[in-house]
Records
---
Amino acid sequence: MTDFAALPFDADEMLAGLARWVVCESPTHDAVAVNRMMDLAAFDLARLGATVQRVPGQMGLSDSLIATLPHPRPELPGILVLGHMDTVHPVGTLEVLPVRREGDICYGPGINDMKGGNYLALETIGQLQRAGIATPLPVTVMFTGDEEIGSPSTARLIEDVARRHACVLVPEPARPDGSVVLGRHAILRFALQASGRPSHAGNIPEKGASAIALMARKLLEIEALSCDAFTCSVGIIRGGQWSNCVPSACEAEMILQLKDPAARDDALARLQALTVPEGDVSFAITPGVARPAWQPGSGCKALLGRAEGLARDLGCDLQSIVSGGGSDGNFTGALGVPTLDGLGVRGQMHHTLQEHIWVDSLAERGRLFAGLLATIDGPPA
């Protein structure tokens, strides 16, 4: 048994530490709340001896953390551990999704996506330090706070930091069977705007043209475009101000997931065809932030091969998938920096009020993460 496999990870102790993070609610659009979570993480990183740089937030979003762990050769291109501290759950979600354990399952907002993985990464670093196991390469930990909305304020920062590293490890949630992620589909976000004609809904409804009704028709058409090559999904809609007014404006937000990168032009053309004016009402589609497709190269595959070997040493058969749903690994993988994603805890139902992890996966995945940090000795190729 290798040294890292014998590290005394204790899932119960890890869960107690993780719970401190989970009860610090941190929805993306609440910069104050996310920064409270960054305070906690900065404290825990400082306890590990890290030099913590706090990068001020942009666009009204939270700060980011870039923490450098001590290493005798800090000039070497090292390992970047990349995670996000924002969640999709608004402050107050703890009232309906409290942190609670039922057997080997623990529930909580953001516990799976992705505070569990971020916490086990720090626990792993601490375990290696206490065991006197030096990492061959320097380790940097980067936490951002806007991943759940496409990383509009941090994408360029992530890319700039990643370029200085030999590889990137992303502790996003593992699949329930423990599979890691080697490649992700491109994700494009769009704003939808329907413009109607206002009128009094009680006296002269026939004089108006409802922007909400127009949007409803368009949403059905948009979601009907989904096929094997790409999918369209609308997740937010806002419209109207008064129930007795025919609404003149309605907005929505959608995501286009490109399973086949070659289908991009066709998908965009089909969406644009839906914007043909209809008299004096109109429908517009405006591009927003996008995540590039991550198609793994030889470096990513070499990194996976190392993880597979370490998993075998631990008695596991590690599988990999190309995933839907974006992560900040899209940016680093698309740059050509060797990236391995989905290294976090095993769990299910993230982004819902049933979000949970399997507690025993904290130690299980911690040992795999320790093996990677303890054995990667250069750029994977």
Note: The longest strand covers residues 186-195.
---
Amino acid sequence: MAGTLNTPLRTALDGQLTPKFLATLNTNGEPNCVPVITIHPYHDGTLVFGEFLMQKTRANLGVCDTVSVAVLDDTFTGWSIKGRFRGFETRGERLDFVNTLPLLRYNAYTGARAAGTIEIIEVSSAISMSRHSVLSSYLRARAVAAFSSRNARRPCMPLQVAEKFRRMGAVRAAACRDRDGFPRAFPLLACVPAGNNRLVLCDPFTNAGLNGVAPGARMAVAVITREPIAYQVKGAYAGTRAGAALIELDACYSASPPLPGQRLDSAV
């Protein structure tokens, strides 16, 4: 699809609690994917978001302007949006707009220091899942994980991170580098741990998001819960097993206050 927002997607982006994830790339093409709930459509056809405790994302945007946004609404319908970052504004109507959003207006930490603008380049077709298909995909991912469990000497996911990924009600998003040089971000509903160094992905979002992605590609996967607590893990796509995708993990980070970006795996 061209870079336009249809009504269901605009409604989802306008939702104050709609899960939205922003993917960026560093100079080596390594993806980073974190929840950015402040992403909203703006009146000129762009997206805006608040710069708030996002050190790695901001660093990536300073060297690579290609971005992707993953969106999932409460009907289990998801989209991927590709765009170009057009800069931060530290004053003006975009920043005023972002700081009037309830999530920042009543935030216990601070308001946004800047408003970022994303020019929409491409919007994917919507993918929808029924409640039954969400459950069946989740159970299938759990079954594959049970036969693909891998515990390594150096565990990547601490127990509290693995527990969040095991929650059926948690929302995840994954990101990789697409062939066109943009990050490709997509929502996930069936994504569970297989031991402490591997994730199993198994749903229609995964099938579409990993189409054409070769084993060995770098991946980032974020998870957010209702608390809200968020984490991000990184690793390499390891192909498929029994129709499910595998990611071998090598890094884990906090992705929510009070210490966003803090590394949590045993490499540190």
Note: The longest helix spans residues 131-147.
---
Amino acid sequence: MRKNEKEYIVHTKHGTYAVRIWRNERENVYSVRIQAFPELATFGTSLADAKRMAKDIIQLHCDCLIKEGKLVVDDSRRVAGNVPKSRVLTPA
């Protein structure tokens, strides 16, 4: 964890996620990393903007995963997405 990095909780329509936000002095922005999705990163011009951007990127990513038929599990173990119904095979 960076010296000025803090953890925040972001609530989205797909659940609750922990994000890490720190002030990037060189770029003059607040950088964001989402712990549940390490491939995602975003930033904002203020702390509030960074939190909004984190919420947006998480929701968009989850929407895409769900559209692909995948399940999404948030940090509180809540599942989002459609659980496929099992097919009942009947004898021929």
Note: DSSP finds one helix and six strands in the chain.
